[in-house]
Amino acid sequence: MPSSYPFTVLTSASIVSFLDFLIxxxxxxxxxxxxxxxxxxxxxxxxACQSSERAVPLTSEDGDDxxxxxxxxxxxxxxLATSRIVNLAFTPTLTNLRAYLAVYNPPVDPTDQxxxxxxxxxxxxxxxxxxxxxxHRGTSDFSVQGISRTFAIAxxxxxxxxxxxxxxxxxxxxxxxxxxxxQIPSPDAExxxxxxxxxxxxxxFGEDQKIWAGRTVETRQVAARWCRFRTLDELKELD
Length: 239
Fold this sequence. Notes:
By secondary structure, the chain is of the alpha/beta class. It has 9 helices and 12 strands. The protein has helices spanning 15-25, 38-54, 60-72, 77-84, 94-102, 132-136, 144-161, 219-224, 232-236, and strands at residues 8-10, 30-34, 86-90, 126-130, 164-168, 176-179, 182-185, 195-197, 204-205, 211-212, 216-218, 228-230. The protein has a 6-stranded parallel beta sheet, with helices on both faces. A two-stranded antiparallel sheet has the order 6-7. Helix 1 packs across helix 3 (60-72). The protein is globular. The two termini are 13 Å apart.
């Protein structure tokens, strides 16, 4: 894989901005793995689009996201054509995710089958994973050991397929504040700041079982062993 396209964890990316990037910056064959059911994914996307309709853009950044949300709802020829050649997979459990990655084989490039597709500069095949960290939550693998294992499988799948790995984690619904009718991430909603224990099967204690027994590590440190953290703007500027 080209060195200019490292394995990447996207930061500060909403579900809409991530999908927009995938649609407009990928090259076939590309795949998006969603770590949830199809119904939950569609509900999450619908909620994001509905929030934009109730919110009033106050800054240029808000305005950009507002425009992106509406662009996803506009059935342009480019959007329809591109969405047909992005393979979509749903893995609602961690076991499903690991199994899919273990046998991952990129779909056939549609350009080899007579589908017209222009490739602007900087486009590359993508293996995107949405909410990989969330797939570990509630399992004994929600630990440094378990998360590292999944990253190893994902990196191996991307490397052997010569595609760009993009991991994106969205704030959990309970970490969202309501402002002006729109859901926005609370200041402490950064998903990669959460502490996890070193080993699988570690125990919790304290009120509401929120404190891990033994040493813990920030999930960002775990991911940084395998991927670089970048924003979408930084990714677009890569050669």
